[in-house]
Amino acid sequence: MIYIALIASVLIGIIIVFVLKPNEKWIQLFLAFSGAYLLSITLLHILPEVYHSTSKNVGIFILIGILLQLVLDFFSQGAEHGHIHVHKKNVFPWVLFISLSIHALLEGIPLAHNHAGYTHEHNNLLWAIIIHKIPVAIILSSFLLNSSFDKKKGLLFILGFSLMSPLGSFLGDALPILNDYRNEITSIIIGIFLHISTTILFESSKNHKFSAFKFMAILTGMGIALLV
């Protein structure tokens, strides 16, 4: 079920692009909502659960996650939080694909079935990833649709990206050592989420102008996170 949900979140993004054809304004609103939801779920649910565990040096692993995302941003050019700046649009962006795949793979590891003892945190993490993946898939699909390289390669890009988080969850089940370091890995994911969500919120308004619609999108994301 987890695998299906993770893959479906990317497919939903593709469908939104091809059916609704959202403009940049709507994409930015969805990003603001997802950033607020991601930040709220991280602070309200995932972070307290990790600190409640017996793991040591949680803060250090959170900092590692932030630094790791900074490195991934360098290669992905910020695709995780709504920006793609690939200059050679006729060349398949392998660096972008690898960066996003590493990001998605790490997200999936704490979702392994052998972590079922952390049901509430598990579900919150799953929903946070799903809400985060939809706008990323929208932005990727829009980029690939408007690029000049082969559309079949673009489709393979999206499909490959959609499989990375399920692969991470599978590896979490298949490799016991990943389960042994579950809290440390989750702490790294928290750092990644904090970086992405705050970047989205800080960049949500051009020229730092107040937007009532984006503010409402942010409030909505926080409100839903408070209710779960």
Can you give a write-up of this model?
By secondary structure, this protein is mainly α. It has one domain. Helix content is 77%, strand content 0%. It contains 9 helices and no strands. It has helices spanning 2-20, 24-52, 58-76, 94-108, 119-146, 151-174, 176-180, 182-202, 212-227. The longest helix has 29 residues, at 24-52. The model has no long low-confidence stretch (mean pLDDT 84).
How does the overall form come out from the CA principal axes?
globular
> What does the largest sheet look like?
none
Output the structural class.
mainly alpha
Give the percentage of residues in beta strands.
under 5%
In round numbers, the mean pLDDT is: 84
Number of helical regions: 9
Task: Give the N-terminus to C-terminus distance in angstroms.
Answer: 19 Å
Low-confidence stretches: none
Rg value? 17 Å
* Elements, N to C (H/E): HHHHHHHHH
Please provide the count of β strands. 0
Total domain units: 1
Bin the helical content: over 70%
Q: Quick summary of this structure?
A:
The protein is mainly α and 228 residues long. The protein is built from nine helices and no strands.
